[in-house]
Amino acid sequence: MKARVQWMGPEQMSFVAEADSGHALVMDGSVEIGGRNIGPRPMELLLMGLGGCSSIDVVMILQKSRQDIRDCVVELSAQRADQEPKVFTQIHLHFVVSGKALDPKRVAHAINLSAEKYCSASIMLGKTAVITHDYEVREEG
Question: Which H or E run contains 46?
Fold first, then answer.
């Protein structure tokens, strides 16, 4: 896997990041350090990546277990260290999984499998942060 990040020039803290897949996005620093608020901060991207990685796992595991999943949203909250390096120290993922006649035990199992076995982002970030999860299951007609 490779990526390329290029500074967008003087008098700003904006960067264009491009992945091997050809997809690109703009990252920006905070206004306090010269950013223009035109993209997410790099640490926000790490948190969003964790949400995406774990959500993909949960959806795939539930689909393979023949659960009629219709939606999956994960809301993440994180705390960072006060001192440099300001790593994540606590991360909480709250899953809202919707579907028809979903088995809550299978939802919990899918989340646990992601956290403990499949989600590379979770396992990597778990080296510095305490990561917790909870969930709710919503019935969809």
Answer: helix 42-64
HSE-up (13 A, CA, CB side) for residue 26: 12
Output the CATH code of domain 42-139.
Answer: 3.30.300.20
Residue 78's H or E segment, with its range, is strand 68-80
- Whole-prediction pTM: 0.94
pLDDT tens-digit readout, 79-110: 999 999 999 999 999 999 999 999 999 999 99
Residue 16: burial class (beta carbons within 10 Å; 0-12, 13-18, 19+): middle
* 40-54 per-position pLDDT tens digit: 999 999 999 999 999
What residue spans in the chain does CATH classification 3.30.300.20 cover?
Answer: 42-139
Distance in angstroms (rounded) separating the CA atoms of residues 107 and 115: 12
Q: In whole angstroms, how far apart are CA 79 and each of 1, 17, 89, 92?
A: 28, 25, 6, 9
